Amino acid sequence: MKIKSLKISLSLVVLALIAMGFSSSGIDLSRYRVNDELELNYTVPNQSEMVDLFIPLTPQFNLFLGKSYLGFREALAFKESQGDYLTVNPYGYLGKYQFGKSTLHSIGIKNPENFLKNSKQQELAFSAYTSRNKWILRNDIKRNIGKTVGGVKITESGILAAAHLAGAGAVQNFLRSGGVQGFEDANGASIRYYLKMFSGYDVSNIIANSKAKVTM
Question: What is the residue-wise DSSP string for the chain?
Fold first, then answer.
């Protein structure tokens, strides 16, 4: 902490009070004595201490994103990591969307540590991976939208969310087997659950692209 001294002049105090109109109110200031060289000591935090004192504010509102693409993206991110860019789970999956290192490598990201610190790169990775999955699953999407498979009504957004969880190949196996060949991750999340949970979002703006990569 830095110690600073503040010297208050009697004449300045009197002038300030007069300017505020106290003199016209009939108040007698003669009985108030202020030492002309009075030192008032106070402390202020330095920069590093300000960081320690920082208290994050809790938002007082919730942003409604509905069934938009942004709503789809953020809902999936919340399920994966509660939207935390810095999360690494016990199995080594990284970031807001919980990517594995092999998946990152396939879309052009070779430095997982930098990836974890770069929120823009994480968003680009989600877009690239989803575009690839849409291309792989393009025929399965056309054949199955609106149908009920394994007790779940199939939508495009549900398929893409399930592919994010299990990979496009596992989703193809589920759909083509009539829901018989399922998948669960280490936390018990299943293709069927993702198909249902993320159904009905507008993901029409995702472009199917077999070569989508992160180029930054």
Answer: -EEEEEE--HHHHHHHHHHTT-GGGT---TT----TT-EEEEEE--HHHHHHH--PPPPSS----TTSHHHHHHHHHHHHHTT-TT-B-TT--BTTTTB-HHHHHHTT---HHHHHH-HHHHHHHHHHHHHHHHHHTHHHHHHHTT-EETTEE--HHHHHHHHHHH-HHHHHHHHHTTT-S--B-TT--BHHHHHHHTTT---TTPPP-TT-----
CA dihedral 170→173→179→181, nearest 10 degrees, is: -80
pLDDT tens figures, 176-210: 999 998 887 767 789 999 999 999 999 999 999 99
Nearest to 180 by CA among 170, 189, 188: 170
Is it the case that residue 213 has pLDDT exceeding 80?
Answer: yes
Summary mean pLDDT of the chain: 82
Question: Measured between alpha carbons, how far is 156 from 99 in angstroms, rounded to an integer?
Answer: 21
What is the CA angle 129-130-135, rounded to 5? 100
Q: What is the pLDDT of residues 63-91, one digit of tens each?
A: 677 899 999 999 999 999 999 999 999 99
Amino acid letter, 170: A
**What pLDDT shows up at residue 8?**
41
pLDDT given at position 10: 44
